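Ligand-bound model needed. iron/sulfur cluster.
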Amino acid sequence: MSEVIVPEKEQIARLAKDRDAVILAHYYCIPEIHEVAHFVGDSLGLSQEAARSPAKVIVFCGVHFMAETASILCPEKTVLLANAEAGCPMADMVEPEALEKRKAELPGVPVLTYVNSSARVKALSDICCTSANAVAVLKSLPPERILMTPDRNLAVYAQSFVPQKEVLLWPGFCPTHHRLNLDEILELKKQHPKALVAAHPECQPKILEQADIISSTSGIIASCGKSEAREFIILTECGVLHPLKKQNPGKTFYEPRTPMVCPNMKKNTVQDIVKALETLTPVIKVPEEIRIPALAAVERMMAVPRD
Ligand code: 13P
Ligand code: SF4
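Prediction:
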C-alpha cells in the first residue's frame, strides 16, 4: 500500500500544540485526515475520546451531529467542525417537531435514538445508541415497546436480538448504505468465494443476510484484523479501507463495483483543519436548554455496558 504523504502534517502538529487542540476524525474521512488526526474512530469511540481528552479545543473531522455530541459532552471546550457544510442526511430525516408529534401518539413508549441525529432530537429522546452498542442498549430497556429513530435498518437489525420486544420504526436510512444492490453483492461473493462479508448495520436486512460480520466501523476493522480469513468484502463507507489495508498488509479487501462514498464525510479536507486551527472557527455549540436533556440521553447510553 502506498504511503499517504501530507505536506501540512508538521504545520498541523505545531498549530494543534499552540492551540491545545486534539484532532478527532471518523474512519470515513479521507486517508490524509487519518494521518494528521490524534484519534481516528467510530461514533462511540470519538464521543468517548472527546469526553476523555484534556485538550481545550476539539477539531472534529466528521459530520455535524458528531461535533454536536462532543459539545454536549464537553461544554467547557471549544468544539470546531473542520467543514461546517458536512451534515448527515440520515440525521436530517428526523425533525424534532415530527418526533414530538409521534411521541404524543405513543404515550409511555421510550424513544431510543441513534447518535446520527441532531442535539434537539437527542433532547427529546430517553436514551441514545451508536451502531456499536445498539443491541446492548435495546436489551437494557425494560419496556416491551420502544420507538427507535432514525435508522430503520439498524432498528430491524437490533430488534432481531430481542424478538420479545416490539420496536417501532422511523422511516430513516443512510443513503450511502441503503442503496446497496443485492445482485451486485451476490455477484461479488461468487467472484470471491473465500471472502468473508463484513457489513455495517445501516445496510438493508437483505444485505445483512449475506454478511458474516455485522458491526460498527471499528468492529469491522477489529474483526477483519483478528480473523484467520485472508479476503473480505467490505460493505460500509470506503474510508475504512485505509486502516484495513494499512493494518493488514497480507489480506485483500474488496468493495462493491460502485464504491460506497459518504459525500459529507469527504467534505472535510486537510486545509479545513489548518483553517480551523488558525481561526478557531467554525464553532459548534449546543445551547444549554438543549444540551442538558440531550446529555441525559447520551449519558444513559454510556452507562450501558458493552455486550
Ligand atoms: P459508526 O458509529 O459505526 O462509526 O458509524 C457511523 C456512521 O455514520 C455510519 O454511517
Ligand atoms: Fe450519515 Fe450515512 Fe454519511 Fe454515516 S455514512 S454520516 S449515516 S450519510
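The radius of gyration is 19 Å.
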